[in-house]
Design goal:
Elements: E1 3-6, H1 15-23, H2 28-47, H3 49-54, E2 56-61, E3 64-72, E4 79-87, H4 96-109, E5 115-121, H5 125-133, E6 137-142, H6 148-151, E7 154-160
Parallel strand pairs: 4-5
Antiparallel strand pairs: 1-2, 2-3, 3-4, 5-7, 6-7
Helix pairs in contact: 1-2
């Protein structure tokens, strides 16, 4: 399988939304809670491809989009914050998420940020493991601003660059 990290502009509008919907299909409560956010993110990125292509990428295998990651660089040099990050269900557990995350870390490091931050939740244990696998450390576990019944506690991670 040939893995490629490609620009959002190489894929059609709706790619981000469809990947998120698939990646979270294991939990209908999370999908229902965050669906409007996913649609908004997809609309924003595909309406602003210059931002999307500079602040993220789509991971493809043999030309098929299987995941993506995006980040917010507005707080450089202090930090860059990872936003959405997902791998399609069919491709989970095959190290594609780790490869995608490492590629993002490599790209973000070129922005001269001091650290990368990300928040996930206590129910997404595979995401927690993925962040730790590329050197992120848990800095705090806190009450979730969103729906704690759906996501549990918020888990804040950082990677010093």
């Amino acid at each position: 399988m040939g893995i490629v990290f490609d620009k959002f502009s190489s894929f059609s509008k709706g790619t981000m939304y469809e990947l998120l919907k698939d990646a979270y299909s294991f939990d209908e409560n999370m999908a229902r809670e965050w669906e409007s956010n996913w649609k908004e993110a997809d609309e924003f990125f595909y309406d602003n491809l210059h931002i999307a292509d500079a602040c993220g990428f789509v991971t493809a295998v043999d030309g098929k989009p299987i995941g993506f990651i995006c980040w917010d660089p507005r707080n450089v040099p202090e930090h860059v914050e990872i936003g959405h990050n997902c791998i399609a269900s069919e491709y989970k557990g095959q190290r594609f998420g780790q490869q995608q995350l490492q590629e993002a870390v490599n790209r973000i490091a070129k922005l001269d940020a001091q650290k990368i931050i990300v928040t996930t939740n206590e129910y997404l244990v595979p995401a927690q493991r993925n962040y730790m696998s590329v050197g992120f450390t848990l800095v705090q576990k806190r009450e979730n601003d969103q729906n704690p019944d759906v996501a549990g506690m918020a888990m804040d991670y950082e990677k010093i660059l």
